[in-house]
């Protein structure tokens, strides 16, 4: 057994020194000569009317969940375990700084009088992580709201004539709903075009709302509030 372990260790060292070592050296040289760090800032406006929630995957819906009362949150919502529910929405991408910060006196203010046309489209989809149940092995977790994958297309608005714009950045991680000044950090996991080999992270901050109606699992019946806007600051490692 000891001889076998010694042989495996020796084989690993030979492979690592000969093959993997050479590849690692190449990556180091490439990172020094062909890669650069880049900061990218974009603003995004969620189009709330595109939102689609599928509650079928929820771990447990309280028996009163479906009984909705005008002006109030779902009956049973605060007793439900919504983990596993799926969601989907779209939005528009603008150059960073396009969307003005809301007034400190009205951080939830509606802002949609942007001076420029959108430069792209983003798509976000994933799973709700909310559970209000405290029984069993899981503790109640009303926040963060979502675990998602988002794609930010920066080469133009997605349309019939522009199905897959170049220069897309893909991110994954948690989101936290729409509180004012809400901040989350997500991973950059790849992309296309100029960002084909990108890595890094993005910090997402909520900046006011726009005037598209937001649909969602926990919204009061008959009440669709304005949708959120965000500013995204990417810290990227990209090819030079």
Characterise the protein shown here.
- The protein is mainly β and 240 residues long.
- The protein is built from one helix and eight strands.
- It has an eight-stranded antiparallel beta barrel.
- It is globular, with a radius of gyration of 23 Å.
- Mean pLDDT is 82; it is low at 1-32.
The tally of helices reads 1
Separation, N- and C-terminal Cα atoms: 49 Å
Q: What is the mean pLDDT? A: 82
The gyration radius over C-alpha positions equals: 23 Å
Low-confidence region ranges: 1-32
**Could you say which overall geometry the principal axes of the C-alpha atoms support?**
globular
Structural class: mainly beta
Order of helices and strands: HEEEEEEEE
Number of strands: 8
The largest pleated sheet is described as: 8 strands, antiparallel, barrel
What is the quaternary state of this protein? single chain
Query: Biggest sheet, strands in spatial order?
Result: 1-2-3-4-5-6-7-8
Beta-strand percent range: 35-45%
Q: Can you give the helix content as a percent range? A: 10-25%
Q: What's the layout of helices and strands?
A:
Layout: H1 2-33, E1 35-54, E2 86-95, E3 120-128, E4 146-153, E5 168-175, E6 183-191, E7 199-213, E8 226-239
Antiparallel strand pairs: 1-2, 1-8, 2-3, 3-4, 4-5, 5-6, 6-7, 7-8
What is shown here, in short?
13% of the residues lie in helices and 39% in strands. It has one helix spanning 2-33; strands at 35-54, 86-95, 120-128, 146-153, 168-175, 183-191, 199-213, 226-239. 28% of the residues are buried.
């Amino acid at each position: 057994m000891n001889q076998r372990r010694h042989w495996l260790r020796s084989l690993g060292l030979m492979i690592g020194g000969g093959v993997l070592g050479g590849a690692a050296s190449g990556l180091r040289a490439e990172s020094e000569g062909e890669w650069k760090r880049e900061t990218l800032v974009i603003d995004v406006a969620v189009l709330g009317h595109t939102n689609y929630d599928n509650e079928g995957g929820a771990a447990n819906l309280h028996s009163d969940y479906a009984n909705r009362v005008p002006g109030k949150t779902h009956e049973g919502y605060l007793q439900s375990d919504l983990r596993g529910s799926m969601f989907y929405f779209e939005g528009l991408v603008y150059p960073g700084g396009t969307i003005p910060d809301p007034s400190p006196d009205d951080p939830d203010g509606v802002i949609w009088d942007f001076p420029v046309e959108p430069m792209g489209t983003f798509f976000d989809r994933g799973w709700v992580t909310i559970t209000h149940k405290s029984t069993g092995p899981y503790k109640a977790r009303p926040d963060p709201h979502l675990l998602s994958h988002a794609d930010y297309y920066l080469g133009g608005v997605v349309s019939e004539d522009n199905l897959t714009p170049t220069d897309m950045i893909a991110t994954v991680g948690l989101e936290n709903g729409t509180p004012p000044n809400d901040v989350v950090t997500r991973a950059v996991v790849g992309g296309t075009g100029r960002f084909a080999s990108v890595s890094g992270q993005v910090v997402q901050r909520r900046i006011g709302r726009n005037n598209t109606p937001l649909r969602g699992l926990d919204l009061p019946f008959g009440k669709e509030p304005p949708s959120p806007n965000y500013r995204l600051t990417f810290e990227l490692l990209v090819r030079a």
